[in-house]
Automatic annotation (TrEMBL):
This is AraC family transcriptional regulator. GO terms for molecular function: DNA-binding transcription factor activity; sequence-specific DNA binding. The keyword Transcription regulation applies. It holds the Pfam family HTH_18.
C-alpha cells in the first residue's frame, strides 16, 4: 500500500504532506524513502526471511518526521546526506556509521547525521524509529536568526543525543507529539498557522538541546537591545498578532539577536517577547468575542484566528486575564 496526499482542500505549501506506506517490495520502499528522505540503497541480509517496511511521514516544508517500522532486518545506505538528520529508535536498536563515528542508538540515545558525508545504518527486525530530517539551509538559517548574525555552516551537531532526560528528552517528546498528530484528521497540525509554529519549535528546540560551537552564545544572557529596536518588534506584534511569530522571527524584525531581544523586552516591557505576543493575542481575541455573533462563531474559531493552537490553554490564559471563560464573553455578546 502506498498513499501520499496533502490534506484535501488545502494548497498552501506549509500544509503538511502525509504518507502512509507499507510494502514487502524493496523497489517500492526505495521509491518511498527517496520521495521523503534521500536516494537510498535498501538491503536485507542473505539469510533474511523476506522484507517488510512501514512508513508514516509528515512533511512540513523543510522538516520531515516519519516513523519507520522494520518488520525484517534491513540496511540503508546513503552516498551523501544533504541535510541534518536524527534517528530516534522507539523499539529495538540500530547501528550506524557516519563521518568516522560508529554509533549505537536505542530508545534512550538518538543518532545524529550531518550534511556532506555518507550514512550506513543497520536495523533489527521488529524495530521502529522516528526519522527526523531537517534541510540544511533551514536549520542554519534558524541558528542565524537566533544569534542575530550570519553563521558559517555546517553546524557541528554531536553524533549522539541523550534523549532519556534533560533537554534532549524534552525535544524528543515534542517530535513524538508532532508525529502522533498524523493519526488525527481534525488535528490542528493541518492548519498552516499551527504547522509553521510547531516546525519552528522543532528546529530551535534541537539547537537549544544539543551541544555545538554556538550553544553557549545561544543560551548565555545577552545585552539588552535599544528601545528603538525593541519597538520594531512590538510594532510587528501589534500589526499582525495572528502571524506565527517565533522569537527568532521577532529578533530578525528588530535587527538583533534573540538574547538581546529577550533582555530588551525584559528591561523595557517587563516580560519576554512571546509572553507579550500572547497578551496581545488575548486582547484581540477578547475584542473579537465581544463583537461576535454566538450563533455563527465559536470560541475555537476565534482562538485559532488569533494564533492559539491549544484551546484548553487559551481558555485558561483567557480566564486568568479577563476573569471569565471565553465562552461567557461570547454568550454575553449576543
Amino acid at each position: 500500500m502506498y498513499d501520499v496526499f496533502p490534506r484535501p482542500g488545502l494548497t498552501c505549501p506549509e500544509v503538511p504532506d502525509i504518507l502512509h506506506f507499507s510494502s514487502v517490495d524493496i523497489d517500492q520502499a526505495r521509491t518511498a524513502l527517496n520521495r521523503f528522505y534521500y536516494p537510498v540503497a535498501v538491503g536485507i541480509p542473505d539469510d533474511g526471511e523476506g522484507f517488510g517496511l512501514g512508513i508514516e511521514v509528515i512533511q512540513l516544508g523543510p522538516l520531515t518526521v516519519g516513523q519507520l517500522s522494520y518488520a525484517s532486518p534491513m540496511t540503508l545506505a546513503v552516498a551523501e546526506i544533504d541535510a541534518y538528520h536524527v534517528s530516534l529508535p522507539m523499539v529495538g536498536q540500530m547501528q550506524a556509521r557516519h563521518a568516522g563515528h560508529e554509533i549505537f542508538a536505542d530508545p534512550s540515545t538518538a543518532a545524529v547525521f550531518g550534511p556532506g558525508n555518507p550514512v550506513y545504518t543497520m536495523h533489527d527486525g521488529n524495530s521502529a524509529e522516528l526519522a527526523i530530517k531537517i534541510e540544511r539551509v533551514a536549520l542554519e538559517q534558524e541558528l542565524a536568526r537566533l544569534l542575530g548574525r550570519p553563521i558559517e555552516g555546517p553546524i557541528d551537531l554531536p553524533p549522539q543525543i541523550d534523549v532519556s532526560s534533560g533537554p534532549g528528552h524534552s525535544w524528543s517528546r515534542l517530535v513524538r507529539l508532532l508525529h502522533d498528530e498524523v493519526a488525527h484528521p481534525e488535528s490542528l497540525i493541518y492548519r498552516p498557522l499551527i504547522a509553521e509554529q510547531l516546525r519552528g519549535c522543532v528546529l530551535s528546540g534541537l539547537l537549544l538541546s544539543v551541544p555545538h560551537r554556538h550553544h553557549d552564545e545561544l543560551t548565555n544572557p545577552g545585552t539588552a537591545g535599544p528601545p528603538r529596536a525593541v519597538r520594531r518588534a512590538v510594532d510587528a506584534i501589534h500589526d499582525e498578532p495572528e502571524r506565527p511569530f517565533t522569537v527568532g522571527d521577532l529578533a530578525a524584525v528588530a535587527g538583533m539577536s534573540v538574547r538581546s531581544l529577550q533582555e530588551g523586552f525584559r528591561r523595557h516591557l517587563g516580560c519576554p517577547p512571546m509572553a507579550y505576543l500572547q497578551q496581545e493575542r488575548l486582547r484581540r481575541a477578547h475584542e473579537s468575542l465581544r463583537r461576535a455573533d454566538p450563533v455563527r462563531v465559536t470560541v475555537a474559531a476565534i482562538a485559532h484566528r488569533w494564533g492559539f493552537a491549544h484551546l484548553g490553554r487559551f481558555a485558561s490564559a483567557y480566564r486568568t486575564r479577563f476573569g471569565v471563560p471565553p465562552s461567557e464573553t461570547l454568550r454575553s455578546s449576543g
